Amino acid sequence: MKYLVGLAVCVAAFAQSPAGVSNARGPASAEATPAPATGASDQSFSGSVDLGYRFRTDVRGSLESYRSVVDLSEGPRLTGIQFTMLDPKCGIFDRLDASGYNWGDPYNTAGVRVAKKKLYDLRFDYRNVLYFNALPSFANLSATGGFNERWYDERRRMSSLQLDLIPGRSITPYLALDRVTESGTAIWPWIGPSNEYPVPVDRSDMQNDFRGGLRFEFSRFHMTLEQGGTTFKNDDKARFTGVNYGNRTSTVLGQTLQLTDFMQAYGVRTSSIYEKALVTANPFSWMSFSGQFLYSMPKTEANYVDVGTGSFADAATLLLYTGQIDNVSGSTKSPHIAGNAGLELRPFRSFRILASWSTNRFHTDSFTNLRQQLAGVGTIIAGKIDPFVSNYNQSETNLIWDLTSTLTLRGGYRYEWGNMTADSSNLSQLGELENGRLNRQVGIGSLTYRPFQKLSVNLEYQGASTTHAYFRTSLYNYSRERTRVRLQPFQSLTLQANVSVMRNQNPLQGVKYEFRSRDNSVSLHWTPAGGKRFGFLAEYSRYTLNSDINIISLPFLTAGSSQYRDKANLATAALELGAGPARFTVGGSLSVTTGTRPTQFYQPLAKLSIPFGKRVSVNGQWQWYGFNEDQYIYEQFRTHVVQLGFRVVL
Amino acid sequence: MTAFSLPHSAGIPTQARRYHAARLAPFFASALFAFFAGSAQAQPASPAQAGANDQPATYVGSETCQACHEDVFNAFQKNPHHLVETSAKYKFDTKACESCHGPGSKHAESTSPSDISNPAKLKPAAADKVCLSCHLNQPTNVGRITGSHAKNQVSCASCHSIHAKGPDGVAPHKAADVNQQCASCHGNVWASFQQPFRHKLPEGVMSCVDCHNPHGSFQPGNMQTSRGSEPGCLNCHADLAGPFAFQHAPLQTEGCSTCHVPHGTNNPRMLTRAQVQYVCLECHGNLPLPTASDVNGTIPPAIHDMRSPRFQNCTVCHQKIHGSNVDRGLFR
């Protein structure tokens, strides 16, 4: 029977089913749920606390660039705290783990895990990350003051809570809640008639993901049934009073354009319910199966209003006016179906067949109503229905053959097909809708050679031929080769080399896309005698990318090309010396790139740790940050950062 | 049909396999399949197997193992796998060592390494089989078959330490430790994070497994998922998930990496090109005017004078580039 099934899988995969509909970006991942350690028989408490103070010299160069890239500041820091309590006799928990890192920095984390054997397993994770970006070169340099018109200073907080009940049993209920909030300030332009006016924005959004389900785990199969949902809200607001001339430097219809008062408010609400089923099974010793099915129906209700007063002119309609009100309301639905399946057949001890299928299908229907009132002119009402359809399918089969005990070969074939329909923009040359097809065939080959346990060589190749792709820069006729060699001649020494090459070509007339990248890296890890006195690690990577594609040049709509070059030399190294219990480390990283945007980024560091007794150690760390851009010298920065602190072992 | 092999049978042909192999020749006369069958039969048995053929080894219990391997035994007491030793569920209570290494009576007598199965020295697929005899039917492994690690013979033991002490013994949990482990193979990827514009992995606030599921995934690149089946990027970038009334199609069909380099680059906002205009124009720049479905992307009108800094960053105006609920041109 298994041979027939195997044959059927191969035939089906190689038969190239006709391009149809469906789609393939499937869900994957199942949460790893390691069982809590339960072997402890005694009550215990262990942990450590790291406290310190960070000093920073004045940033030479651009402080805004420094904040956009590094953003470490001065002040006291709780750089780390972690502890574990084991108490098998406690009625509430028998294990408690807690940790927190980088408190006081722009990014900090916290985690708690509490578990009681056979009763519950509760995990909480929290992250608080500050995002700052204000690189003048990114946006409009000609604007007044030359500032970045896409500037933002935001804080994103992500928390996750998961509770498994009666873990380790055959049937395990679980509940989870994830929350992401974003708040802060930003500068966005308001796109008015014939001009755009940068205005300050208060950012505010929040998403809650909740899910719950049952896991059934048996010796021959597992099934997870999950229902979840999402709520999202966005309440961004902008307010401006003053005189804002915007980015336009010339008059329109003889009038100087300006914005004198502005208010903008978003009110976006999204809700979604999904159902998901996961299955794994091994009905026979020679067969394993896994699959997933998901259905979701997200809906968005959006309301938007902006009110602007000033001196406006619309060159297209030859209108002069002093005020504008935009009021938009709309709703969107996007039913989504995804299915994935995988099958592993082992007809012989040295031969396996891995087959997988995916489909991912969704479409979006929306209705948007725009009501625009121009002061003294009248009201324009427009309704718009915008469909979006995407169907993706994928079928892949791999044959894996253990040719000898040290050599494994793999050959495979993947077929991808799909279609999409999208709304075109107002000025599209394609009409109201754009349509696309996907049809791609990929051949796969790989070799894994392990002549002995300490040496492994892995070669992988993919070559694709595409007859239809959605976009000019999509993968078309591409090949991807990867080589990975790992050698561990001694327990203390590991050497590794990676070579990765990719080429993508789209020969269509007017496109002529040529993409070539190569990534070579070597690494060495040497820790003789367990690294007690000496340890050294070094990694070097050289990355080159050449991309050429024909494009249309504006404003004269003439033939042009986009050429992008990137040659990066990236290295990290660390030399660690030990004298008794004291440790000294020196090293750091560098990134030197040439090409279209030459950039140098240096991060050397030195660390010293001196223990006093068994429980206390004093730590010091120096790091230098140096950032140079050949074309944007006003964004360079350099600074020293020194951190002094101590660790207490609890 | 036989049940899924017990872990200690990894690498040992069972009666069922011999039976199927014997049926193979008459059923499939093709030389290719016969060759496969021959290779399976011709593979030399390991010493442990040879020993097992003489007289089957029997279980002796973990305490017998402790006599010589006390350090491993002690560390194992605080390892999550110790559950096997104490729980009747796995049917190896008091015999946890032998649940992976197989019956140890012969090894206990001879102390010869050749008389015991050592998963660390097995082929990756055989070693995985030992682990999967317990872990196969778990949600963790739903995407295993489609994952690149399984296809490329990266065994469970490449990342997981089976005996080590403590809750982090099996796998690291701290972000910096996770990243270090992944970088031990994916050194070129880790090098990308040394560039100025990257996700905050070197700072220790994120780890590789926040975005990737090393056990395998139905998403390309072993990506994690969000909202059931969306790309894992949206777990943090929730405001970009939509659905939007006006979608930007590549975001839905090609993914975030069409415009962004997630691991790190020298371009601000982790863009694939040094200037925003080229990120956009490489799709919105068809020559001649689009006539086929393979070149979607509208040409911008000539009012965009790219010689002026005012127009060189398209997202100054098209600021809702990931999708808009308000404006068809993605202006607001």
List the helices and strands and how they pair.
The complex is a heterodimer of chains A (650) and B (332).
Chain A: H1 2-14, E1 44-56, E2 60-61, H2 63-69, E3 75-86, E4 95-103, E5 107-116, E6 120-133, E7 152-165, E8 171-192, E9 195-217, E10 221-234, E11 237-244, E12 258-284, E13 287-296, E14 299-314, E15 319-333, E16 336-348, E17 351-374, E18 378-385, E19 388-402, E20 407-423, E21 433-452, E22 455-468, E23 477-490, E24 493-506, E25 513-526, E26 534-553, E27 558-579, E28 582-595, E29 599-612, E30 616-629, E31 637-649
Antiparallel strand pairs in A: 1-3, 1-31, 2-31, 3-4, 4-5, 5-6, 6-7, 7-8, 8-9, 9-10, 9-11, 10-12, 11-12, 12-13, 12-14, 13-16, 14-15, 15-17, 16-17, 17-18, 17-19, 19-20, 20-21, 21-22, 22-23, 23-24, 24-25, 25-26, 26-27, 27-28, 28-29, 29-30, 30-31
Chain B: H1 15-27, H2 31-42, H3 47-54, H4 62-68, H5 70-76, H6 82-86, H7 96-101, H8 105-110, H9 124-135, H10 148-151, H11 175-183, H12 187-192, H13 208-211, E1 225-226, E2 230-231, E3 246-247, H14 249-253, H15 276-281, H16 309-312, E4 323-324
Antiparallel strand pairs in B: 1-2, 3-4
